[in-house]
Write a structure and sequence with these properties.
The protein is an alpha/beta fold. Helix content is 42%, strand content 18%. The chain folds into 2 domains: 4-123 and 305-322, ATPase, nucleotide binding domain (Nucleotidyltransferase, domain 5), CATH 3.30.420; 135-301, 2-Layer Sandwich (Nucleotidyltransferase, domain 5), CATH 3.30.420.40.
């Protein structure tokens, strides 16, 4: 018997709703919030207000595009955390009310787990490109940089994670000081294609184990700009492409160094990448290069599944539904938590 899940994602500044049936995506609607660009980052109060405006039309459109009646929905999966508390409260409150009105089970989903599970979304019935467990997943975004050993959808072990800034945060903060706007990661990726990745050298951390650190890289980048701008006020505009290429190459090298170590130590050669930074062209190229050089079987998510989206929430909810892992109406959202 088919299982139809409605997913809702509202952890940050994207309001998203999706419908999946037996892991096959029927719809995935995302409403982004351009208002934050003027502030150089997400403003939590503005984000929660925008979610309140967007959530009803987004859910309605997801159901319409899926071509189903809301009575066909078997369960509702929603992001309970981690994320911005105000944003999560909007999605959580709506999910509880909607599920109660329909008389269907409610399923809470960990946002980080959902990013990993994005690899199990099927775009059609013949899509069989999903990873086999166990596999390693590099989860990289604005708030997270983790190497995760995935034993099953509900058993994930964090082998290493950032002890300060995340990779996406390093991209965005360095882009901000260069005046590239927000979000800066995609802009750096675009400009880096025209630059020399070996033009500048930045500090690389020496952290034991599989943990990451990007604060030292960010600091050395800022010091370089400070020193060079004293000599030439037009330094950034004249060397922007080279700066972006060198910064991006260093971040990718830091990420892949620890991932190679994890693959070697665990013996697991099935490797995936997830999260917003997985859309970066240099990260994706590095995975393909490692597949060719080291014999890894790599899994790159579709670009539509790299950012926050409800399809990844819905597919996680699908597996929890099969296990009858439901949540009660009194569970509150949470801002911070680990896998």
């Amino acid at each position: 018997m088919s299982v139809t899940i409605l997913g809702i994602e509202s952890s940050c500044d994207d309001t998203s709703a999706a419908v999946i049936r037996d892991r096959v995506m029927l719809s995935n609607v995302i409403a982004s919030q351009a208002v934050h660009e003027a502030f150089g980052g997400v403003v939590p109060e503005l984000a929660s207000r925008a979610h309140q405006q967007n959530i009803i039309p987004v859910v309605s459109e997801a159901i319409r595009r899926a071509g189903i009646d809301k009575k066909e929905i078997d369960a509702l999966a929603f992001t309970r955390g981690p994320g911005l508390m105000g944003s999560l409260l909007v999605g959580t409150s709506f999910a509880k009310g909607f599920a109660t009105a329909l008389g269907i089970p409610l399923i809470d989903v960990n946002h980080l787990q959902a990013h990993v599970m994005a690899h199990f979304i099927k775009v059609d019935a013949d899509d069989n490109a999903q990873p086999s467990c166990p596999f390693l997943c590099l989860l990289v975004s604005g708030g997270n940089s983790q190497i995760i050993k995935v034993k099953s959808y509900k058993e994930m072990e964090v082998l290493g994670q950032t002890i300060d800034d995340a990779a996406g945060e390093a991209f965005d903060k360095c882009a901000k000081v260069m005046g590239l706007g927000y979000p800066g990661g995609p802009v750096i990726d675009r400009l880096a294609k025209e630059g020399d990745p070996k033009a500048f050298s930045f500090n690389k951390p020496h952290i034991a184990g599989y943990d990451y650190s990007f604060s030292g890289l960010k600091t050395s980048f800022l010091y370089l700009l400070r020193d060079e701008l004293k000599k030439n006020p037009d330094f950034i505009s004249e060397r922007k492409n080279d700066l972006c290429a060198s910064l991006q190459a260093t971040i990718v090298e830091i990420l892949m160094d620890k991932l190679r170590k994890a693959v070697k130590d665990t013996g697991i050669r099935e490797v995936a990448v997830a999260g917003g930074v997985s859309a970066n062209s240099a990260v994706r190229q590095a995975f393909e290069d490692h597949a060719a050089r080291y014999g890894w079987r790599v899994h790159l998510p579709r670009f539509s599944f790299t950012t926050d989206n409800a399809a990844m929430v819905a597919v996680t909810g699908y597996y929890k539904y099969l296990d009858k892992d439901f949540c009660s109406l009194d569970l509150p959202p949470f801002a911070r938590v680990e896998l």
